[in-house]
Write a structure and sequence with these properties.
The complex is a heterodimer. By secondary structure, chain A is mostly helical. Chain A has one domain (about 30-165). Chain A is about 55% helix and about 5% strand. Chain A contains eight helices and one strand, in the order ααααααααβ. Chain A has helices at about 5-15, 40, 45-55, 65-80, 80-100, 110-135, 140-155, 160-165; one strand at about 175-180. Chain B is α/β, with parallel strands linked by helices. Chain B has two domains: about 1-85 and about 100-160 and about 225-335 and about 440-450 and about 490-564, FAD/NAD(P)-binding domain (3-Layer(bba) Sandwich); about 160-200 and about 335-420 and about 455-485, no CATH class. Chain B has helices spanning about 15-25, 65-70, 125-135, 145-155, 180-195, 210-215, 245-250, 300-310, 400-410, 455-475, 540-560, and strands at about 5-10, 30-35, 95, 200, 255, 260-270, 275-280, 285-295, 340-345, 350-355, 360, 380-385, 415-420, 430-440, 445-450, 480-485, 515, 520-525. In chain B, strand 14 and strand 15 (about 445-450) form a beta hairpin. The chains are: A mainly alpha, B alpha/beta. Chains A and B meet through helix 1, helix 4, helix 6, helix 7 and helix 8 of A and helix 2, helix 5, strand 10 and helix 9 of B. Strand 1 (about 175-180) of chain A pairs antiparallel with strand 10 (about 350-355) of chain B.
Chain lengths: ~190, ~575
């Protein structure tokens, strides 16, 4: 696996090129006042979204991997201002949306409610990605950004790489053919 | 410091390191001039053992880095774990007359720290091609001249590969090859049966089974961490830093001077040879002169050409040995424009363990003996197969949640990729020259680069796109996704030519021993010397030509006390 393989896989899964430094040329549109720390102030919400995508089961989940903090850190360091704005506005909208549907913020919803909200939004994001693929230059959907960073962060975290995927820092000999019996993939 | 040496080598990268090793082994007091900082093996590999989660952005660069370095940040392998082995754009300006991304690594070891490590030999047909098919000028040497030096280099650096008896890709002195996985074996079988083509494990500068010669260098068997470009704590892949430079150091004959920007080679009218090299100290900007009986120019293809162009004198007002204006012309590169990937059903009971720092290769099958395509030259194809990561095929429509997590954590469908590495033709219009007005921070003229694709390259891209698809589909692959990336030359990091070899001094810069025709004690043995580009990865040829030339120079000095 080369360093781009995970990002390519995430792109294939979300129908949208992995958003980050390669979109550095995207248009500049900067919110100020309150927005600059918005994600840092909402890590609990980001964690809750990520945990709904990748929950703790018999193996660690997104919260164990501190995905929320990573999303805030990565997006502010790597995203073009326009993409960062999409992500912040989307996160804020989710809470509005959840209050409308269930009368409470996303964090306080039941697991089933969270699952329903995000499953619907994921379908909407996938539709958006298909349309965007035909219309180059269109901005990505906020949930696509969120899901990309959740997947990337999780499988490159210690919890995700070593307790969910399998990780060997110094593998030694390479074997071209081994029998596969349902194990998880090799992290890197 | 001492100002007189037997030999000066400009550059410490893959060929400069080899010049240093051979010259020092032959007892010559050798000065290596390196324009960048020192990088000591292991000690100066700050990221070599970092895990992804040790890094704030998991090894990705912040946007500020790519914004500050729009050119170099596009280089293969450039990320937060490797960027200290690449230049910064603002420090080293050049002029792109046509789009050209010039990838440079200015430090001791040069780009040998961050190279791709492919080490196939050229075949006799590759050397003969320009003469046989009528393009460029003939090489002044053939396969037999280089073969023993290939072997010499292979044994020392450690190259893995299988013995195949393929005429278009001769066997060398190889360590055990990387195994093909199940789907790669399937491709191998189909290509053989349906196309009569070879699909084999590539030849890479990795020690797959350390021998005594490698242990003497302090290097061990490759552990397949697959983090090569950060620098390897095991010395598992070849770099000047891990191998040739410390070896040369042990002879007691080597002096390395970092922060030494080569300004020009000094020509002496009395001897009609070079007397030494003028250097600008990169930090103090002080001018220094070092003298030697022989000068090896190994600054990388375009920088070696730049040094020669800037080496003007009464005798050579247009650059050293450049009476004819050939210097700077016929710059070639490798065409990597097109690639494709596809997926295949089945083989789900098979996986691999863990990752290999290597790929497979399909040797050139075009224009091998006679012209059989609508373009000149040939191409090789690199390829590999793997199982998809985070594949949601088995998630049964779930897009989030526990079942989704479980499904995407398992290896998915098998996929394979192919990408081309194609020969480009030596066109006079593809050239570099000195800027008449723009200077770099050391007062040296900036290089103007005017290199682009021609129609031949376009036709070759189309042929690969068609042949690659045919081969994948014949093997049962579907959803072939092919792409012409249209990237500018330079990103291939295989620039070649500028001071080409040739038998005729009227049309070439260098003779059959890489000596400047008109200034015999100057040898150019890096990519600048290439008469044609061939289709194989060129680094090991530079190493072989360097070892050959260095021993020739040492023989001459021993016999005559000077180069004649």
């Amino acid at each position: 696996m080369d360093r781009r393989e995970l990002l390519r896989a995430i792109a294939a899964l979300t129908g949208c090129a992995f958003v980050g430094e390669q979109r550095a040329e995207a248009l500049v549109y900067v919110h100020t006042d309150g927005w600059s720390t918005y994600l840092d102030d909402n890590i609990a919400l980001l964690d809750e979204i990520a945990e709904t995508i990748l929950p703790r089961t018999d193996t660690p989940g997104a919260k164990d991997a501190r995905v929320g903090a990573f999303i805030a850190r990565y997006s502010s360091a790597c995203y073009a201002p326009a993409d960062l704005t999409i992500l912040r506005e989307g996160i804020a909208d989710l809470d509005v949306h959840s209050r409308k549907a269930y009368g409470m913020g996303f964090v306080n919803c039941t697991s089933a409610q969270k699952q329903k909200l995000l499953t619907d939004i994921d379908a909407e994001a996938k539709r958006h990605a298909r349309e965007a693929a035909d219309n180059r230059g269109q901005s990505p959907h906020w949930f696509t950004l969120c899901k990309q960073l959740t997947l990337m962060s999780f499988f490159t975290s210690e919890a995700g790489a070593t307790h969910v995927a399998r990780y060997r820092p110094v593998p030694g000999a390479y074997k071209g053919v081994v029998a596969y019996k349902g194990e998880t993939f090799w992290a890197w | 410091m001492e100002t007189h040496y037997d030999a000066i080598v400009i550059g410490s990268g893959i060929s400069g390191g080899w010049a240093a090793k051979e010259l020092c082994d032959r007892g010559l007091k050798t000065l290596v001039l390196e324009r960048g900082r020192d990088v000591q093996h292991i000690k100066d590999y700050p990221t070599m053992s970092l895990r992804r989660w040790d890094m704030d952005l998991r090894g990705e660069n912040p946007r500020s880095t790519s914004e500050a370095n729009p050119l170099i940040s596009r280089a293969a392998g450039y990320d937060a774990t490797t960027k200290h082995f690449f230049i910064k754009d603002e420090d080293h300006p050049y002029v792109q007359e046509k789009p050209f991304l010039w990838v440079r690594g200015y430090q001791v070891g040069g780009k040998s720290l961050i190279w791709g490590r492919a080490c196939a030999r050229w075949s006799p047909m590759d050397f003969d091609a320009p003469k046989r098919l009528g393009y460029g000028i003939p090489w002044p040497i053939g396969y037999d001249d280089v073969a023993p030096w290939y072997g010499h280099v292979e044994k020392f650096i450690g190259v893995c590969g299988s013995k195949e008896g393929i005429a278009t890709m001769p066997d060398g002195e190889y360590l055990p090859a990387y195994e093909l996985n199940t789907v790669e074996q399937h491709l191998q079988k189909v290509l053989k049966e349906k196309f009569g083509r070879h699909y084999i494990s590539g030849r890479w500068a990795h020690i797959t089974d350390a021998q005594e010669i490698h242990r003497q260098q302090g290097r061990a068997t490759c552990q397949n961490r697959n983090l090569c470009m950060r620098g390897c704590p095991f010395g598992g892949y070849f770099s000047s830093n891990a191998s040739t430079l410390p070896w040369a150091q042990k002879t007691g004959n080597l002096t390395v001077r970092p922060f030494s920007v080569a300004h020009s080679i000094i020509y002496d009218d009395a001897t009609q040879q070079a007397s030494g090299v003028k250097v600008i100290d990169a930090n103090t900007h002080e001018e220094l002169v070092f003298k030697a009986k022989v000068v090896f120019v190994n600054a990388s293809a375009l920088n070696s050409t730049l040094v020669l162009l800037n080496s003007t004198s009464k005798r050579f007002p247009n650059g050293l040995g450049n009476d004819h204006g050939v210097l700077g012309k016929y710059v070639g590169f490798h065409n990597y424009r097109a690639g494709m990937s596809a997926e295949i059903e089945g083989f789900e009971d098979s996986y691999y363990e863990v990752y290999k720092p290597a790929e497979n290769i399909i040797p050139n099958f075009r224009n091998v003996q006679k012209q059989d395509a609508d373009f000149l030259g040939g191409y090789v194809i690199f390829s590999g197969a793997s199982r998809r990561l985070i594949d949601d095929n088995d998630a049964h429509g779930e897009t989030i949640g526990a079942k989704y997590k479980q499904a995407i954590s398992k290896p998915g469908k098998w996929t394979a990729y192919m990408y081309m590495q194609g020969e480009t033709l030596p066109n006079a219009s593809n050239h570099v020259r000195l800027s008449p007005d723009k200077k770099d921070p050391w007062g040296i003229p900036q290089l103007v680069i005017s290199v682009g694709y021609d129609d031949n390259a376009e036709r070759m891209v189309r042929d690969f796109l068609s042949e690659g698809r045919k081969m994948l589909e014949a093997a049962g692959f579907t959803n072939v996704s092919a792409n012409d990336n249209h990237w500018p030359p330079g990103l291939d990091i295989h620039e070649m030519g500028g001071a080409r070899m040739g038998a005729d001094p009227k049309t070439s810069m260098l003779n059959a021993h890489n000596q400047v025709h008109l200034c015999k004690n100057v040898f150019v043995t890096d990519g600048a010397c290439m008469t044609s580009t061939g289709s194989q990865s060129p680094s090991i040829l530079y190493m072989a030509l360097t070892a050959r030339a260095a021993n020739y120079a040492a023989d001459q000095l021993k016999k005559h006390g000077r180069i004649v």
